[in-house]
Design goal:
mainly alpha; Farnesyl Diphosphate Synthase; 326 residues
């Protein structure tokens, strides 16, 4: 139950972190559950596949002030970020022709691709409308959510354009994931920082921290495709290569074994061959090492921030979560 005796400052009802987290989930449920009747059953279906709210939690953690309290605008922004993320997942499932998402049948599988695409578009509109409903909007002009969504879309398009590109470089791969995954994490951390910080240098640190954690999240997810079963991940695994998506573990393997890359180019390799070559060349070890470098950079930024110990613990917990995903 939410504590109704909220602390106040300048006639603003500040909220505890736990209460803010509950309010974000309630806000999202309200948005999905009160959609126009023509789309409501599809939104209700999406409620069943809600995630762990890591982006929303990140925003709220960054928004905590010195007293451990959060401005109510952070709740709207966190809900908007999560709805934006949900929109990208709906679209991703169409692109990937995915059957499952978080253990639930995907919207595109149950209702068709056209319906799913339109629902994803609707979610984008709802998220931007929710974000624009914050009070004192002029204080958040630096948070350009449409620009961040543009980065996500360009990252996805860049990945799609490179489908089946066995010559994809590490630099090109980083450019892809910086858009399709890290951009929304960056937006989450930056939004939270803007809510509670007035120093632009500090907000830039949060922004960079979000980008690094987003990179870690995607690198970890790429390893999961090789390491985890479908029943544990609750989504398709062992499928990136089959979808034409070339990730860092395989890029590393191709760089070590050019003859194998040529066999793959000729369509002469099976999934077991891919798994074996990634294991043999240390593709997962290499990817984890890259992730660890981002982890160390993230810790350095967190230690540079002038924040309470409680807030520091929250940020490190988010960092550790990104390093494990599941």
């Amino acid at each position: 139950m939410i504590n109704k005796s909220l602390r106040t400052n300048d006639n603003i009802n500040f909220i505890t972190f736990d209460d803010a987290t509950i309010l974000v989930k309630e806000q999202i449920d309200t948005v999905l559950g009160t959609s126009p009747s023509v789309i409501r059953k599809y939104m209700e279906h999406l409620k069943a596949s809600r995630g762990k709210y890591i982006r929303a939690v990140s925003l709220l953690a960054c928004a905590e002030n010195e007293e451990g309290l959060i401005h109510p605008n952070a709740v709207k922004l966190a809900a908007a970020i999560e709805i934006l993320h949900l929109a990208t997942l709906v679209h991703d499932d169409v692109i990937d022709n995915a059957d499952l998402r978080r253990g639930v049948v995907t919207l595109q599988k149950k209702y068709g691709k056209k319906t799913a695409v339109i629902c994803g578009d609707y979610l984008l509109c709802v998220a931007l409308k929710l974000a624009s409903s914050v009070t004192n909007r002029e204080d958040y002009l630096d948070l350009d959510l449409p620009d961040y969504m543009g980065k996500v879309c360009l990252g996805e398009l860049n990945q799609h354009s490179n489908n089946g590109n066995l010559d994809l470089s590490i630099y090109e791969y980083f450019k892809i994931i910086a858009g399709k995954t890290a951009a929304l994490f960056e937006a989450s951390f930056y939004a939270g920082a803007i809510v509670c910080e007035s120093d632009s240098q500090n907000t830039k640190k949060y922004k960079l921290l979000g980008r690094y954690i987003g990179m870690i999240f995607q690198l970890t997810d790429d390893c999961i495709d090789f390491e985890t079963s479908k029943s544990i991940a609750k989504k398709p695994v062992q499928s990136d290569f089959e979808q034409g998506v070339i990730t860092l573990p395989l890029i590393h393997a191709f760089m070590q074994k050019l003859d194998f890359k040529e066999k793959a180019r000729q369509g002469q390799v099976a999934r077991d061959d891919i798994n074996d070559i990634v294991a043999h060349t240390g593709g997962l070890i290499f990817t984890r090492k890259v992730s660890k470098k981002y982890y160390d950079k993230s810790i350095k930024i967190i230690n540079e921030l002038n924040i309470t110990e409680e807030k520091r613990i929250k940020l490190i917990a988010i960092l550790d979560k990104a390093s494990h995903v599941l």
